[in-house]
Amino acid sequence: MTERPPVAIIMGSQSDWETMKNAADTLEALEISYDARIISAHRTPDRLVAFAKSARDEGFKVIIAGAGGAAHLPGMAAAMTPLPVFGVPVQSKALSGQDSLLSIVQMPAGIPVGTLAIGKAGAINAALLAAAVLALYDEDIAERLDNWRAGQSAAVAEYPMDNL
Length: 164
Ligand code: RP5
Known about the structure:
Elements: E1 7-11, H1 17-29, E2 34-38, H2 45-54, E3 62-68, H3 73-80, E4 85-90, H4 98-105, E5 114-115, H5 120-135, H6 139-154
Parallel strand pairs: 1-2, 1-3, 3-4, 4-5
Helix pairs in contact: 1-5, 2-3, 5-6
């Protein structure tokens, strides 16, 4: 039997994939498998309920949820699963993602959504946080995450240069 991917990346729309692909690419760099799915809280509510209620039994350990505008997807998912949910505010056209950010971050006490930065940085960091959670119980992932971070440090020059 193939083991289920530990990370689910869900997003409200195909249009979110450009942003959420950064989370997927980061997980791939860390050799962590994932399932990416389009689940809209308002357009496909039944799909959301089915996914969120079965996510733990399906073997997922962490959920990354990206949405834009009235970004209720991460909060609704978190309401229906005990798994950690990391929310990525997708940059919206109307309000540049401030609407997404506020609607994800301002969860009333009791149902947490770990909220990241708007857009690409948030998607990458959601994947790194997911990896850090998995690394608590998986030494191989911990080692790959350590190496990834060391590589990032090594890529930063100590002195600035002209005309790069
Ligand atoms: C949200 O509405 C999605 O998360 C997306 O960011 C936003 C716009 O969706 P589309 O109109 O591009 O499908 O549900």
